[in-house]
Amino acid sequence: SSLAELGDLRGRRVLVRSDLNVPLDGDRITDDGRIRASLPTISALSAAGARVVVMAHLGRPSGAPDAAYSLAPVAARLGELLGSAVAFASDTVGPSAQSVVAGLADGQVALLENVRFNAGETSKDDAVRGAFADELAALGDAFVSDGFGVVHRKQASVYDIATRLPSAMGGLVAAELSVLRRLTEEPERPYVVVLGGSKVSDKLGVIDNLLGKADKLLIGGGMLFTFLKAQGHEIGTSLLEEDQIPVCLDYLARAKEAGVELLLPVDVVVADAFGDEASAQVVAADAIPAGKVGLDIGPESSRLFAAALADARTVFWNGPMGVFEQAAFAEGTRAVAAALTTVPGLSVVGGGDSAAAVRQLGFADDQFGHISTGGGASLEYLEGKALPGIDVLS
Ligand code: 3PG
Hints:
Elements: E1 13-17, E2 24-25, E3 28-29, H1 33-47, E4 51-55, H2 72-82, E5 87-89, H3 95-102, E6 109-112, H4 126-137, E7 142-145, E8 167-169, H5 171-184, E9 191-195, H6 204-210, E10 216-219, H7 224-230, H8 245-258, E11 261-263, E12 267-271, E13 281-284, E14 293-297, H9 299-309, E15 314-318, H10 331-341, E16 346-350, H11 352-360, E17 370-371, H12 376-382, H13 388-391
Parallel strand pairs: 1-4, 1-7, 4-6, 5-6, 7-8, 9-10, 9-15, 10-11, 15-16, 16-17
Antiparallel strand pairs: 2-3, 12-13, 12-14
The structure holds 3-phosphoglyceric acid.
């Protein structure tokens, strides 16, 4: 289902679901990668003469309007990047949305306010979601699904809307899928997966699935401490998911059985308290002093991970190695990013956080094979789960 299947779009109102969920500091956008990634589809529709109505979410508001989650700053940035003003509707389906859409000329672009200001967007009740999707559908004549980062969500503007309008897959979703396919369909070997981020529980499905597929699994980030604890080590006040200890033990055993090299850090950077850079110090991973909190992988581990990545032909990385926002705890993430830029094969950086991390650390997008706009979505794809926003299109 490509855009061409929608036929002549001149003068037609085309609703596009994009993922414009960008990190904000107040109303300043700190990483506009997702907006940039959404431009080609929006521009193509505009160039085809469509009246383009972009739908998107920001954060996780509670289903009611909340100024802290307004898309207004995103509309401004989108307009700058497009080189022409974007009409912003201060509600999603109400009078403002209706009048903004009615006022669009051929080729013009509008952005509706955060779809999650409406409880119907994320409702688990099909009828409630459907009623909201009906209101959205009334604003358009066709639908283009281009928000790769949300295709794993069965939500009104992602899923239900596609059952109500002639629908097509946007170029971003198509491009993301074609790269991710190379990670699951006969990946070139060695295939190395690097996982970080704070929670083991977010990564269970993907570890489970990759234990039979990847050659090496490198683990850093907050989740590494639950693994260290499972191995019987002292972890001080580091992040711990007590209930995941048995799961970690099971993964360690299964990795051994499957011949998958599961690499854990041999040293870590600890501090007296979360964020306390002045007290940062490197200690052995099996000798974390009581009372200290682990906030990054250590230099020896960085070398170990870089060596494990050196001959990789396929790499998938999701989740920072440490609290990369602070210089004292950013070196592990920087080392992994640097190693990825030199791998001889395909390197994929997955996820909003990891993408923001590499950009914040000064790397350029084109140093990597692919930076995915999807965090949860790319993980669920690798887990082999069905993606409702994709399946509904076929
Ligand atoms: C993301 O940030 O991964 C996507 O925008 C999806 O957001 P969500 O996890 O709040 O659904």
